[in-house]
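Good morning,

Both structures are done.
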Amino acid sequence: MPVSMDEVIRSLPAESQAKVLARSEELIEEYLTLQELRKTLNLTQEAMADLLSIRQANISKVEKRADMRISTLRSYLEAMGGTLELIARVPGHGPVRLEGLGDLGSGRLR
């Protein structure tokens, strides 16, 4: 008979359960969408639009995009008070932080 993941976790010692829960929360935080990130910061689309001096409809479009310019993503994150770091990972080498990509300085979403 199949066993659910919840049952497996409940069968672990309390310390192990806590570690599993903590790690799952870390992973969930790593994979937020832009919309979820904005909502986590208690920002509305209207507030983001004001921060970026653009229309709310443009915020909606940005949040739905699967592909965008790095400068657009950087501007969006900076408007929330965040930063964007790009890390390249290549087999046989350590992580490399890429600098200067998307630094247009316009502060506008495209």
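Second structure follows.
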Amino acid sequence: MRVLDPAFEESAVGFVLPPRPKELRGKTVGIISNGKEGTAHFFAHLETVLRARYGVANVVHRVKRSLSAPAEPAIMDEAATWDAAIAGVGD
């Protein structure tokens, strides 16, 4: 019998979370989606709430290429420039 490990094969790189911003007014928030059906409408509504209620200046939407794998290095590099990030899944 052969047992397969369904986990993603690359090891996660360790990192330290940056401090949370005290407020979101005037900030840039990035949203990383897994791209499943339903996420686009949800994240569009979330953007409306972030701008109206919390004064967020910019919202950046990115979609991963793979539902089950981590976000691509280019997305992660861009995320390093955001003030806050939201990662979400949906159906």
